[in-house]
Amino acid sequence: MNSRFFILPILISAYVALSCLSFPAHANTFRWVDDKGQVHYGDHIPPKEVDRAYSVINKEGVTINSVEKAKTKEQLAEERRLKQQQAEQRNYDHILLDTYGKVSDLEETRDRFIAAIEGLIKVSQHKLANINNEIDKLHKAAANFERDGKVMPDVMRKDISNLQSQIDQENDFIRAQRKQQNDIRAKFAADIKRFQELKGRNKAQNDREDNSTVNQGTHTLIGE
């Protein structure tokens, strides 16, 4: 028998084996959608499409992984901002719970701050009353000069101007202190609301833990 008949099957088997090694079958398929809404499938994601959302589908047609669209710089910056905000809120929550034991503690602290500012306002109001008395005297003196047909002295005009400036300053100070009192009321109102939320959340958590402990004890007794 010619040896070629024995060699031919061996060559065919070798060719098939090499073909399988050179061109492996892809187990997974990638699915993505382009800007026009057209769905694409492929054994890999083209370089220009790597930032898109895509799904990985196995050979049975089941989606085994989904990758979200790459986020923009603005989205990443917003995520960082939100994480920072959440971290600051958690820190502030700890401060609230560590500083105050009950709502009345916050109310007493709020009232002390407001009372301290009220004291400053009363001092300013007393000062303002004295200035108004002084400027009233000068206005009367100026009116006398005018009735007598005389020119009001420059020094008197300057004193009136200075006193009026002091009146304006004191009124601005009082308005600023009133605003600060209102800001304190608003801040403590928010703090009290948050404190109550945290206390309620902690109580609910403790109740669940207590119930879990009771249930575990009951199961232990039943098992015994």
Question: How does this structure look, described?
Answer:
With 224 residues, this protein is α+β, with helices and mostly antiparallel strands. The chain folds into three domains: 4-67, no CATH class; 72-100; 101-223. Helices cover 72% and strands 8% of the residues. It contains four helices and four strands. It has helices at 4-22, 73-99, 103-147, 154-223, and strands spanning 29-33, 39-42, 54-57, 63-67. Strands 2-1-3-4 form a four-stranded antiparallel β-sheet, with no helix packed on it. Helix 3 (103-147) runs antiparallel to helix 4. The longest helix is centred in the last third of the chain and has 70 residues, at 154-223. It starts with a helix and ends with a helix.
SSE order and pairing:
Elements lengths: L3 H19 L6 E5 L5 E4 L11 E4 L5 E5 L5 H27 L3 H45 L6 H70 L1
Antiparallel strand pairs: 1-2, 1-3, 3-4
Helix pairs in contact: 3-4
Overall mean pLDDT stands at 84
Rg calculated over all Cα atoms: 41 Å
| Helix-strand makeup class | alpha+beta
In quaternary terms, these chains amount to single chain
Distance between the termini: 85 Å
Uncertain stretches: 1-6, 14-25
Count every beta strand, where a strand is a DSSP E run of 2 or more residues. Answer: 4
Largest sheet: 4 strands, antiparallel
The helix fraction, in percent, is over 70%
Supply the number of structural domains: 3
Number of helices: 4
